[in-house]
Amino acid sequence: MKTLKRYIFCITFMTLAYSQTLDIETLESLVIKQNPHLLALAKQIDIQQEKLVQSRKFSNPVLSFETGADAETSGMISQKIQLGGKRKHKIKLSELEFKKSELEYQKLTQEKLTVAFQSFVNILHLQELKSLQHDRISVVEELLKSVSKRVEAGKLSPAEQSRAKIQYFQEQMKFNTINSKLERTWKSISALYGEEKSPFNFAKGVFKKIPMITRSHSLDNSLSFLLAELSVEIQERNIKSEKAKVIPNLDVGAGIKRSEIPGNALQIGLSIPIPIFNRNQGNIKSAILALDKKELELKAVESQLNSKLVQIIIELDLLYSETTTLKEEIIPEAQSAYTIISDGYIYGRFTYLDVVDAQKMWFQSRSQYLMALKDFHQNIFELSRLTGNTNSANFMEKN
Fold first, then answer.
1. Confidence of residue 66 (pLDDT cuts 50, 70, 90)
2. Hey, what CATH topology would domain 2-395 get?
3. Is the pLDDT of residue 5 over 60?
4. 86-152 and 2-17 helices, crossing angle to 10°
5. Which residues lie closer than 8 Å to 342 by C-beta, 6 or more apart?
6. Nearest C-alpha neighbor of 171 from the set 395, 329, 359, 397
7. For residue 206, with 0-12 CB atoms within 10 Å meaning exposed, 13-18 middle and 19 or more buried, which class applies?
8. What 3-state class would DSSP assign to 393?
9. What is the tens place of the pLDDT at every residue in 352-364?
10. DSSP 73-103
11. Is 128 helix (H, G, I), strand (E, B) or coil?
């Protein structure tokens, strides 16, 4: 018994003595700067940036020479001139693709931060559970002492003492299980910023603070919605680009021809394809159909986001009601009942099972309260992700 108590004390002491604290601001910074997936996608922005630069370049002129057997030599420089706004459409498409790469990076950043924040909530929850379990072990230990005294006095069967010991060992096993879950969660959260093992072992944040729920939410800043809208815009530009290809490009050139006849002859060249057989009809029709597809996808994304939004709001309302009822009604009543029954047990007014049931009700209600808090915070972060407003400010500890 004393060995187990020393074990719990040592774990608590070592945690406090060697703890490296992680807060949500630090976590956010680590994920943004070190997440390998974000670093890889950031390269795509650089790639699209260079493609945009290239799209603004004019095509190079062509210099050609010809020498004939009759000592004639000619040289000409020619330039392709794009008609129908092809260059303008190409530049605009590159600008839109660059914007798309930026939105995709922001969307992935938001997704990774949401996962990181929810994992952070898990850690805070497990820390609270660990503290709660420590309290439960202390309560069970006190009950074991009380049972042992009554057994020694001959008022209870030794079987009651055995049951109390079993409960004590079971609660200790639960304590060890929570520790194991904490280790695994720390390892998973470290992977989000590219580390195999986390240098942190204690999370600091306001877990029991319930932020206010805003009743009105908009998808105007939702990155999923903005990306779907941008895909429609890109396809609209693709249609214009395909239609512009119907208008042929113009090749113009000028040069000099030298022969045995004294003097040089000035040459001017012009060529333009005649769009008789191919007017790009298939690509234009394909682009129009692709636009229809993108518009349907936009409606589907909007509908899906709105549905998720409603579900989360309903869930948050339920969780708010649950946490309030547990905190203000159930937990105080359960604690009062346990105090009355445990005190009465000493004088023989209640049985051991009465005490265990009251104790179980008290700690289960506290555990349920912590679980509801965890679910509430995780839904808040999911709501922020859907609306494009990921913000950890409400979760920072205020000194």
1. confident
2. Outer membrane efflux proteins (OEP) (1.20.1600)
3. no
4. 150
5. 143, 355, 358, 359
6. 359
7. middle
8. helix
9. 889 999 999 999 9
10. EEEEEEEEE--TTHHHHHHHHHHHHHHHHHH
11. helix
